[in-house]
Amino acid sequence: MIEARDLTVTLGKHTIVAGQTLTCAPGTLTALVGPSGSGKTTLLHALGLLLPVASGRLSLGGADVTRAGDGARRRFWQSSAAFVLQDYGIIDDESVAFNVTLRGGRAAGRADVAAVLDHVGLAGRGGEQAAVLSGGEKQRLAVARALYKRARVVFVDEPTASLDAENRARIVRYFRDLANQGATVVAATHDDEFVAACDARHEVR
Question: What is the pLDDT, as a whole number, of residue 195?
Fold first, then answer.
């Protein structure tokens, strides 16, 4: 459960988002919506502990993390959270399988890695270098990483930007599946089709 109460985030002397109150429950897909420049991505990053909170209260799983230290944030990222950001977060010089597990070794041949790659339409490609993938394939690889990690919270930034209709529909379905499996999924998006698949929407102004 993510709970934000009167959350304000500043960068330097500038207030980027102010007074945001929302709740994102496990097993739900929540869309952060609003015009360009409204602060959707900033709010998303604050909810994921990537940016500090200037004022208000933020809790994750009932624990107050408003002033979480570096150690607490790292533990959250390592054990509970997955991020699917606009640049995909893919390491081009590593294999597809490495990008799923973020570990070396013989990951490409592991059954669990093969299963998540198959689920996102990248079956048999674990040994390939990630640089050869298209933009849509890299986005699906980022989803595979979240599936492999079995993340309890998934933060997503513009997941369907620049994707064709087929890949857009796939990505919407994958995040819907993650929520149906019990994850708390929060997405900043402009995509009406993605928003329609969500359980809740929060207007960022």
Answer: 93
N-to-C CA span, the chain: 23
**With contact defined as beta carbons under 8 Å apart, do 95 and 126 qualify?**
yes
The pTM score is 0.88
- Which pLDDT tens digit goes with each residue over 164-193? 888 888 888 889 988 998 999 999 999 998
Distance CA 105, CA 42 (A): 36
> Which residue type is seen at 63?
A
User: Which residues, in sequence order, are CB contacts of 196 under 8 Å at separation 6+?
Assistant: none
C-alpha 35/C-alpha 82 separation (Å) is: 25
pLDDT digits (tens, 9 = 90+) for 131-161: 999 888 888 898 888 888 888 999 999 888 7
* Whether residue 107 has pLDDT greater than 80: no
| Separation of alpha carbons 2 and 153, rounded Å | 9
- Give the sign of the dihedral formed by CA 74, CA 76, CA 78, CA 82: negative
Can you say whether the dihedral through the CA atoms of 165, 166, 167, 171 is positive or negative?
A: positive
In DSSP notation, the chain reads: -EEEEEEEEEETTEEEEEEEEEEE-TT-EEEEE-STTSSHHHHHHHHTTSS--SEEEEEETTEE-TT--HHHHHHHHHHTEEEE-TTTT--TTSBHHHHHHS--SSGGG-HHHHHHHHHTT-TT-TTSBGGGS-HHHHHHHHHHHHHHHT-SEEEEESTTTT--HHHHHHHHHHHHHHHHTT-EEEEE---HHHHHT-SEEEE--
